[in-house]
Amino acid sequence: MTEDGGAPLPPELLEKFRTIGLRLDRAGRFWHQGVEVTHPRLRQALLRWLDVRDDGRDVVRLDDQRYAYVDVDDAHLRAVSARWDDDRVWLRLDDDRDEELAYATLYAAGDGGLCCRVRGGRLRGRLGTAAHAAVAERVVEDRDAPSGFALRAAGKVWPIGVVPAQDA
Fold first, then answer.
1. Which residue, of 1, 13, 60, 99, has the greatest Cβ tally within 10 A?
2. Are 83 and 129 spatial neighbours (Cβ–Cβ below 8 Å)?
3. How do the residues of the chain divide into helix, strand and coil, expressed in percent and rounded to 5?
4. Which of 118, 49, 48, 122 is nearest to 90 (CA)?
5. DSSP assignment, residue 160?
6. Which residue spans within 19-159 are E strands per DSSP?
7. Mean pLDDT, range 40-46, rounded to an integer
8. DSSP 3-state assignment of 118?
C-alpha cells in the first residue's frame, strides 16, 4: 500500500513512467519529447537534479524513488567560467554552483576541449570557452602526460589525460 492507501505501481509500469523522452544536448539545452525546455527555472532545476544511478544510467533525481531517465549527449554540466584563487581554480557550472576543479580528472576531449569530473566525480563536466581560456593560462607542455600537457595548480603539476573510457 502507498501512503494514500492505493496499491503500489508494478515495477515494469514504474520503469515505463520514468522514460519520459528527456534529453540534454551538448550545448546544455534540455529537450522533452523533441521540444526545448525554455523555462529558465525549470532548466536550472533539471540541471541541479542531474545524477547517475549506480547502474550508470543518467537521471534527473528528486529522491531514491522519484527520478526519470535522461539521455545526455555529451557532458552533464558545463563550466561557464573559471577563476583562479591563488593557485587553485574554481569552476562556475551551468547549474549555478561553484566547485574547485578536480585536477586529477582533467582530460583533453577528442575535439580539443577540456573536460573533467564534477560533483564529487559523479558527473561529466566540459569547460566552456571562457573557462577553457582561464584554465589554459596555466597549462604547460609535459612529455610524460598522456595528452602532452599538464596543469600547474594547487601546488602540483597535474598531467592532463585523454578521454577516459567511461567518458568516450
1. 60
2. no
3. 20, 40, 40
4. 118
5. P
6. 22-24, 30-32, 35-36, 50-52, 58-61, 67-72, 77-85, 88-93, 98-100, 107-108, 114-118, 123-127, 139-141, 149-153, 156-159
7. 96
8. strand
The string of DSSP codes covering 59-81 is EEESSSS-EEEEEESS-SEEEEE
Instruction: Fill in the amino acid letter for 137.
Output: E
Contact between residue 79 and residue 72 where contact means Cβ atoms under 8 Å apart: no
The residue among 151 and 64 whose pLDDT is bigger is: 151
Question: What is the per-residue pLDDT across 2-18, written as a single tens digit (0 to 9) for each?
Answer: 566 677 777 777 777 88
Give the closest residue to 54 by CA, choosing from 64, 39, 66: 64
Determine if residue 2 is left, alpha or beta; phi over 0 gives left, psi from -120 to 50 gives alpha, anything else beta: beta
The DSSP element (H or E) to which 132 belongs, if any, is helix 129-136
